[in-house]
Amino acid sequence: MSTTVFVSGATGFIAQHIVKQLLEDGYKVVGSVRSQAKGEDLKSLISKAGLKADNFSYAIVEDIAAKGAFDEALKSNPEVTVFLHTASPFHFDVSDVKKQLLDPAVEGTTNALNAIKEYGKNIKRVVVTSSYAAITGFGQLAIPGKTVNEESWNPITEKQALADPQSGYIGSKTFAEREVWNFVEKSKPQWDISVVNPVWVFGPAAFEVKDKSKLNTSNEVVGGILKAGKDKSQPQQYTGYFIDVRDVAKAEIIAFEKQDAVGQRLILSSGPFTTEKVVEILKKDFKDLPLPTLDESKKPDFDKSESIIDNEKTKKILGFKFIGLEKSVDDTVSQLV
């Protein structure tokens, strides 16, 4: 197979799984990274995993929000026929919501789409990683008990998004995805597009974890429990929906391989989770692990905060069964301990 796939933000948690699965499936991959050091590091992880490192190359894109960020990367790789855009900030450690979350997400997406239109002469399929954050409201905008599906949108405004980092992240995902569909409507590009909208993403890292103190933001749910067990402290308690990272990667690949996915938003959710449920799984499957006793009074109420997801259409298009919570948690923790 000689198809070459471009993966933006290739060192990210989800992106590394995409790179891994693409190489396993016989694709060639060009990944964008922020520096040569990060590119070489990823190449060595690929080698160590016994994958064909010769089929992976990288392009340096220091700042996805800089004008023309992806132009050179696509000019130098005219063989690319598929573009998977996964690069977007996901962290809450910010002092300026607009500058650190909203602008990079929206401008990074616009830069990628402009570069594909201008220089991706052979590109036929584009998949953008959005988020469940773009599907429904949270916090003040939550619609508990209301069913949402692939047609639903978060009604957040820019003013609401600037309130705090969490609202900023939610806004960044919503505005960046709106930008995608507006671009497609206005520009009528020669390529087809699909968007994936994952919920909280759990699961192990694609390659060996060198620094176990720095987990990706989603896995902090699990990491927080392990840390609280050690420190004899209280972890922050969460509730919501989860999907395993390996299923996200699989869905991204099916999204460009399958004609049924063209023009679709795909909600990736395996089912609900709570911190309490994760602790129960760990008690059962890791008997020697020190685990916290959760404070009942801090328990979040799923029914009072969460919308009901109907993603039957997505499941039908993808055609595979999602990994369950127990396997996802067990595989994550096995890698960490």
UniProtKB/TrEMBL annotation:
SUPFAM superfamilies named among the record's database cross-references: NAD(P)-binding Rossmann-fold domains
Membership in a protein family: Belongs to the NAD(P)-dependent epimerase/dehydratase family. Dihydroflavonol-4-reductase subfamily.
Transmembrane segments: none
Keyword Disulfide bond appears in the UniProt entry: no
Protein name: NAD-dependent epimerase/dehydratase domain-containing protein
NAD-dependent epimerase/dehydratase domain ranges (all copies): 5-262
CDD domains in alphabetical order: AR_SDR_e
Keyword vocabulary terms for this entry: Oxidoreductase
Provenance organism: Lodderomyces beijingensis
